[in-house]
Each structure stands twice: as C-alpha cells, then as structure tokens.
Specification:
Layout: H1 2-36, E1 49-50, E2 57-58, E3 61-62, E4 66-70, H2 80-89, E5 94-98, H3 101-104, H4 119-128, E6 132-136, H5 167-184, E7 195-199, H6 213-222, E8 229-234, E9 247-253, H7 258-267, E10 274-279, E11 290-292, H8 295-307, E12 311-318, E13 329-330, E14 338-339, H9 358-368, E15 390-391, E16 394-397, H10 398-401, E17 409-411, E18 432-439, E19 443-446, E20 451-452, E21 454-459, E22 462-467, E23 473-476, E24 483-490, E25 507-508, E26 513-514, E27 517-518, E28 522-527, H11 531-538, E29 544-545, E30 554-562, E31 569-572, E32 578-583, E33 586-592, E34 599-602, E35 610-618, E36 625-629, E37 637-639
Parallel strand pairs: 4-5, 4-12, 5-6, 6-7, 7-8, 8-9, 9-10, 10-12, 11-37
Antiparallel strand pairs: 1-2, 2-3, 13-14, 15-36, 16-29, 16-30, 17-28, 18-24, 18-28, 19-23, 19-26, 20-25, 21-22, 21-24, 26-27, 30-35, 31-34, 31-36, 32-33, 32-35
Helix pairs in contact: 8-9
C-alpha cells in the first residue's frame, strides 16, 4: 500500500512537469507566431498591430511591414498560390490588396464572391503561407481600374455625387459593406486571421469634396466589427486633407524627398512611418509608350526607406492583368481621357506572367538582411508555350450578331449606357452600345462632344468614319430616301482618378446633330459582350465561312490545338486593328494597334488539352490569323519621370 501511494505522488509530479512544458511550448509558439506570421496557427491573440510609438509593434514586439501589392482580381485563381509563394520568397511579410466593388456587386443587390472573386479563400491562402494582410476595401480604390472600382450603376442617379456623404452614395456603400465586412471580420488578427490593418478609403486627400466623408467611412468600418489598426494612404499633397482621427496616415511616392518624410513626421510625431505605395514601376496608356523604372533607380530608394526605419509596401509587387473591360483611364493633365492598356505588368518585380525580374533578385537580396532566418527557396519559373498560329475559319458580322443581344430599346432621344433599361434595370456597364436612327439626307454630323468615348459611324451598314474627343464632325454622303445611321459607341474605360468621377457616363450622353438639327427616334442595342452573349455566339449556326469576304466590324472564330499540359502564352495580332479577344469564353481584354502593348497574356489554366476556341471582335481590319509568342511585347519604352 505504501509503495503504491509513493508511485501515485511521483506520477502527479510528472504530470505537473509535463503541464509546465506545454505552457512553455505554447509561449514559444505565440512568440514565433508574432515573429514569423500567420502560418504558426490560428489562436487567441492579445495585441495586434499598434502604432503607439515610432515603431510598429505586434504582440508588443517591434515589427516592420515589408509589404507588396498583389490584387486577386488581376491574377487567375489557379496562380494565386504561385504569386504569393514568390512574394514570401522575396522576403516580404505582408500582402496588400484592394477590393473591387464593381466586380463584387455588378448589379445593385447582386453579390459575387465566388471563383476568381473568392476573397475569403485568398485571405485564407495568405495566412497559410505566412503572410499578414493589409486590406484596402475602398469603396473607391483607384488602381487604374474602371471608375476606381465604383459600380457604374451608381451613375443612373443623375444627382449622384460619388465619394461624398450624398445619401444615394452612402446607402449603396452601407449595403456593400454589410456584405463585404461580414466576410472579412473573421479574418482579422484578433480572431486568429491574417488581417493586421485596414485602410480607410484611398487617397481621399486628393479628392476632398466632403469633410464628413472620411469619418463616415471610418464609422462604417468600425460599426461592422473592424477592430484592427486603421490607416489612410495619400501623396504628400493629399496628407493635408485625407486623414481621419483614429487612423495612421501613410504616404505614397516613387522618388524619396526628405521634405515629404519630414512633413509626415510633423503631422504625426512619434508614430511609425510607412510608405503605403512605393511605386515600383508605372502603368501604360493607349497610344503612349511603355513605362520603365529601372532597378538601378529603384533599389537605392528602397534601401534608404529601410535605413530610415520605415515600413514599406511595394505597389505593385505583381501587377497582373486588366482582363475584360476593367481598365480605367487617365484624365490628369490631358484634354481627353486616355485609357489604360490591358496589361498591368507595371514593370513590377514579378512580371505580368509571374516571371522573376532583376528588381526581384535585388529586392530579395536586400530584404534578406532584415530576416534572422534564410528566405524560402524561390519557386520554379513556369514554362511557356508558343502554339501554332490559329487560322480564322468563320466570321459573323456585327449586324448578324445582333440576333444574340437583348431586346433593343426605343427612345426619342439618346440614352447613356448606364441609364439603359437592361441588366434588370442596372444599365449597361461595359463594352459597346449601338445607336441607330433614320436619316433622309447627307451633310455634317456633329457629336457636340457627346460621344463617350469613341464611335464607328455607318450609313446603311457602310463605314463612314470615326467620332471621338478629337474628331467631332463627320461628312455623311448624300443618298436617296430613308437610310439607317448607326453609331457603334465604345466605353474605352472610365476615369479612375481625379475630380471628374461624377462625369463618367458612357455611350451617347447628349444630342448629336445632322446639319445642326438634333437627331431623334433611336433604336439602342446593348453589346456588353458578357459571357452569356459569347456563349450564344459560339453555339450559333449563323457563322459564315471565310471564303466569303468577311466584313468588319465582326466576330472572327478560330481554333488551336493543345497536345500536352496547357502552358501560358502570349497572343498577338499583327495586321489587325482594334478589338477584344475571347479564349474559351474568357475575355482576355482589349487590343489596339496604336500600342504600346502588342500582345495579350493568355494564362495556361484558361486553356485545355485539345481544341481551344478563340473569338476576336475586330472593328476595322483583319489579317486572318492569330499568332502566339513566348514573351510579351509591351512596345517602345520610356523612363518613368
């Protein structure tokens, strides 16, 4: 009995010792979690990211944000992990991403967070790979994205005042945030998730139309359960007007100026300093040159930022692609908006197709000095394939394709895209709109600058000319009797930055005149080229053989064969002029021979073994074949100034 009792006491001591070991191990795991990132596990946390002194702290320990922007909506979902692993291997510890309201709520009250827009999966993936997240939910994001990410249906309200406390805007924001933030809140740091900070709007100091607006957005976030550190983001000029009491102000720039840092220090002394957008490159505009910001220019600036004990976010780390009609437009310092090109390569450290660049290797070496452990191995580069040219087999004229559009709308006066009674009365957002009316004479057709943005003009289906911001008058030929005047108007991309957001309605936004008399009695057709329309085209029996002379504008169909595992490629269209390309129903984006971009990125996951279908909508001329290349052609270059 006695020996048995002694044994039981000894066992109890072992249990206590074991429990002490468990507590110690748990403490080590918590410490490693704050040092290494979310991959250490989801657990209760005490103190998230703080900005209470000159240095950020996380769980009370000094913490420096080494961040990079990768937008999930610009990258094929199949490549999310590849891009984030490459980010991790470069020595970055934090992912930043915008949230595009226009994709997530394409029609009022209709929300989409699935497939390529599955934000929760993206956040979960970041956590699993050991990356913290700074979320930039807008509602306005800029991002060289159509209307800065705001949905076009907001513009159905003729009194709309975007990015203000106008009730028509705030009601829509509240509805969107109700849906978005209930998905986001569980991924905050305090709940075991990767989100360590949330941005309040975006560069509002450069807009600053309503002093009550930023407090409204702040409260919209807080009242829906956002508890992590709030931040704002502005260039130096915007810092004066874009702040909000509870948020840390951060700065955006490309060239480091001591006065800018001094100013940031002055407005919030004894706070951490962060460059929220360090512009690693720049975007390109149609008809311009491809912007290059050399590694030799970039590296000294990043090095100096780190020496100043600042945190940094590379905008962009990986740019990706403005697939579909999502490119924005620039109206800063120019008379007419200039659309952004389809590629958002941005001359970033990781290229549009996910390739390593000189910038990547130099940054990896630099960031490695800010880690106590060796950086992860760099993931292998993905192979590319140059497929055999695809020869056009069939074509369908614009006029024959109208069978597959929605029912036409009759109106005495022109109606802009957004106010058309289509898409369950949400209007038309993107693509082309065809306006037709009857004329009984030729003469001077004047747009009165009411075309947004570019119109192909036809008389009885015969091409007559182009009207746009520069060309506002066109001579129509004389003819007998009643003839049909057709204007195919393209939305080339809404302005995404500046003070003209409220003026971004597209299509015909007012009267056009023939011989100084306004035209009336229009038949209007929406050609938004959404997936349903493209599928109807594919299945159509109306396609004509190319043995019959093809007419433009029109749709051109070809197939190319993939005999092995599909790889990335680049599509090029020498001899073609301007249009849009669809592969297996997916909209790759716009092309235009004026450049600078001369190829379109084709992700391998969007292809499949066997036959792959290409449909090209071409406005004016075709070469008859589609070619492929192993590398992109972004056109002639110019250094970023």
């Amino acid at each position: 009995m006695e020996s048995s009792s002694v044994f039981s006491v000894r066992l109890s001591l072992k249990q206590r010792y074991f429990l002490l070991l468990c507590v110690a191990a748990a403490a080590i795991i918590v410490y490693q979690f704050t040092r290494n990132g979310p991959e250490a596990g989801r657990m209760s946390r005490v103190e998230g990211l703080r900005a209470d002194s000159s240095q950020f702290t996380l769980e009370g320990e000094p913490f420096r944000i080494l961040g990079g922007s990768v937008h999930y909506f610009r990258v094929p979902r199949a490549y999310w992990e590849d891009r984030l692993l490459k980010m991790k291997a470069c020595g970055l510890n934090t992912l930043t991403t915008y949230v595009p309201w226009n994709l997530h709520e394409p029609e009022r009250g209709v929300f989409n967070f699935e497939n390529e827009l599955d934000l929760e999966t993206y956040l979960h993936l970041a956590a699993s790979l050991g990356l913290w997240v700074i979320l930039r939910p807008g509602p306005y994001i800029c991002a060289e994205w159509d209307l800065g990410g705001l949905p076009s249906w907001l513009l159905r309200d003729q009194n709309m005042r975007l990015r203000t406390t106008y009730s028509g805007f705030t009601d829509a924001v509240n509805s969107f945030f109700d849906h978005l933030l209930k998905k986001v809140v569980p991924y905050q740091y305090s709940k075991g998730g990767p989100i360590i900070a949330v941005q309040v709007e975006n560069e509002y100091g450069s807009y600053a139309k309503d002093e009550e607006y930023m407090p409204f957005i702040e409260e919209a976030l807080l009242s829906r359960g956002i508890t992590e550190l709030l931040m704002t983001s502005d260039n130096k000029e915007g810092l004066k007007l874009g702040g909000v009491k509870a948020a840390l102000e951060t700065i955006n720039f490309q060239k480091l100026k001591a006065d800018d840092i001094k100013y940031l220090d002055g407005i919030q002394p004894q706070k951490p300093k962060m460059v929220m957008e360090y512009w690693s490159g720049w975007f390109d505009l149609l008809g311009g040159l491809h912007h290059v910001y050399t590694a030799e220019d970039m590296l000294p600036v990043v090095t100096e930022i780190l020496k100043l004990d600042m945190s940094i976010n590379l905008y962009m780390f990986h740019g990706g692609t403005n697939f579909g009609f999502m490119n924005g437009a620039s109206a800063v310092g120019i008379s007419a908006p200039k659309p952004t090109v389809t590629s958002y390569d941005y001359d970033a450290p990781l290229s549009e197709a996910g390739d390593y660049t000189t910038k990547y290797h130099l940054l990896r070496n630099l960031f490695s000095h800010y880690h106590t452990q060796p950086l992860p191995e760099m993931p292998s580069v993905r192979e590319r394939r140059v497929y055999q040219p695809a020869v056009i087999q069939q074509h369908l004229s614009l006029w024959d394709s109208l069978h597959f559009t929605d029912k036409p709308f009759k109106s005495e006066r022109p109606v802009n895209m957004e106010n058309l009674p289509v898409n369950r009365n949400n209007g038309q957002s993107y693509g082309y709109t065809l306006y037709e009316t009857t004329i009984t004479s030729g003469g001077a057709l004047n747009s009165l600058n009411n075309i947004r943005d570019r119109a192909l003009v036809f008389v009885d289906k015969h091409f007559t000319g182009v009207l746009d911001y520069k060309i506002q008058e066109l001579a129509l030929p004389d003819g007998k009797g009643r003839r049909t005047l057709s204007l195919l108007v393209e939305n080339c991309g809404r302005v995404n930055y500046g003070k003209t957001l409220d003026e971004q309605r597209k299509g015909l936004v007012g009267d056009i005149q023939l011989n100084k008399r306004p035209l009336r009695d229009f038949i209007i057709r929406s050609l938004d080229m959404k997936p349903g329309f493209v599928k109807r085209l594919e299945r159509s029996g109306h396609w004509m053989s190319v043995r019959q002379r093809p007419s433009c504008p029109g749709f051109f169909q070809a197939k190319f064969y993939v005999n092995s595992f599909p790889r990335d490629t680049f599509l090029k269209l020498p001899g073609w002029n301007k249009g849009v390309v669809f592969i297996n129903g997916k909209n790759l984006g716009r092309y235009w021979s004026i450049g600078p971009q001369q190829t379109l990125y084709v992700p391998g996951p969007w292809l499949h073994r066997g036959d792959n279908q290409v449909i090209v909508f071409e406005e004016q001329e075709t070469d008859g074949k589609i070619q492929f290349a192993s590398s992109p052609d972004f056109g002639m270059t110019v250094d970023v100034q």
